[in-house]
Amino acid sequence: MSERTATIASRVGLHARPAAIFAEAAGELDLEVTIARQGEPADEAMDAASILSLMSLGAAQGDVVVLRAEGTGADEALDKLVKILETDHDAE
Amino acid sequence: MQTFSGVGVAPGRVLGPVRQMPKPVQEPHANVNIPADVTVESQAARVKDAAKAVQSELRARAATASGEGKEVLEATALMAADPMLIKSAVKLLKPETPGGARTAERAVWEAAATVADTLKSLGGYMAERVADVLDVRARIVSELRGLPAPGIPASEEPFILAAEDLAPADTATLDPAKVIALITSGGGPQSHTAILARALGLPAVVAAPGVDDIDDGVEVYVDGAAGTITTDPSEELRIAAKAWATQASTLAAFTGDNTLADGYRVPLLANVGTGADAVKAADAGAEGVGLLRTEFCFLDRDTEPTVEEQITAYGAVFAAFPGKKVVVRTLDAGADKPLPFLTNADEPNPALGVRGYRTDLTSPGVLERQLQAIAEAEAAHEAEVWVMAPMISTAEEAARFAELCAGAGLKTPGVMVEVPSAALTAETVLGRVSFASLGTNDLTQYAMAADRQLGPLATLNDPWQPAVLKLVKLTADGAATAAGASGQPKPVGVCGEAAADPALAAVLIGLGVATLSMSPRALASVAAVLKTITLAQAQQLAGLALAAPSAAAARSAVREQLPVLNELGL
Fold it and tell me: Can you give the residue ranges of every domain in chain B?
């Protein structure tokens, strides 16, 4: 199991366009990636490819989340997803 | 030949085929017995296929959209085939699920409802996305049932859109190149359908029972002034439609400097929301802005815009009208225009709640920062800036608003008169400020105690109601007395939908209104009618309307005296 933490950079938090960009990227992977708030149990983590799950996570700017995935290429995939979360898409 | 009658809300005579707006999606029944030969796998496949089909349709629409609309459609497309939504729907198909196996339609319905409830409980921006989730749900359920997708139908040829009523969300996707008229069985003169029709210059008839049952493809004649819809149109009506097409082009020009037949000046101004609107209004000949709806800079925001952002937004409007009057209305949030950082969505009665100027009670500071931004934008441009507060009910509120304006260095403070109490005490209210603007849509809703959006109340919700006209007169008279007492002019304008009805515009002037502000589309037709009458005639028309026993009687008595309306098809 690979694991990464990421700090939400977008001013609006993890919803709207930032959530759409992230969910789409997670959906394109052959791996199942989960997302949870830091400190929450791993079995309550949610599907990172689900925009509705991301929205109900309600992560605001500055909140820390944990991404988890298993399988070949998991490390590279998670690094890529962390980068998306740590970019302020509203500033683009 | 069959004729349907309703309330004409935007003039124009057109012929075309009817396309019905699909009816709202009905909730699928719970507790349906599922035949033994229907497998969970086959139902799960149906759900997934329907979700994918909806997703590709939304993606195709996103590809042709632009800007913010594109982003919304792309996000909605992602929701349509959301893995969490599909997983929870599929779970509900299984016999071991609590409550037993659901049909595919019911499973999607319940799964989306659960998601919607979660988002709603999060509040703010998430709660606003509930509508998107429910839209996706309606689309998937329609797809499963083999029914057309909800929303405005797609068509190669131009058509007349028939519906029960249109929602604000439908109006955003309406293509004025395809839709040539709007006819609804519900709605009223102030409904979203009516406001949209006037803004787009589309002929429209609302509250015409039966039109939502006309078959798709049937050719009808619509008269948006008379409020009638006719099937199997006669040769005479075909000629009338052709004549309108020619007249519409001659009516399209307005060059500013509006006067009555005797030379009496009645400036015609425009209602705008953005800098882009203001440029269009100036091109349409508007002599200034009678209503700048500043909330449009704030909508879709979950935080208050900065003073700098506001200065840019207001400055864009001021730049379009150098040397001309621009009346800025401070934030009018609440009721049908909620703002997450200002208004409370849980009020039991939002039309009577903390809205308009009243949000200053619960969120002090926002108004003062807005006034500061308006003053700074004014300093950078040449427009003559007036500022007014919405939903003022008392002279005390008017006085406090005037103080806030003075504090920001704004010279011309005013009030909106929408609450009957402000009209009834106009003399005292106008003693505290420099001008008033009548918001006839809300003034009518409050005077008649009739919700603007409700079709069955359309006849009550009519600015021709003699009670509403009396409130207009009280306001104009009160302002005149206040002006005499102070030695300063206290002009009263109208910026509600009433100003865009040429016959009613004549009555308003006769009642003592000095300026009219409207959707830029209406400027030319209002000017064309006003130039045929003198101030004395306008006053006579006002007398007729005030004395009428009903709104309908007032309208027909006035229209009878204005033959130009019929000649122009207005």
Answer: 3-21+154-246, 40-145, 252-568
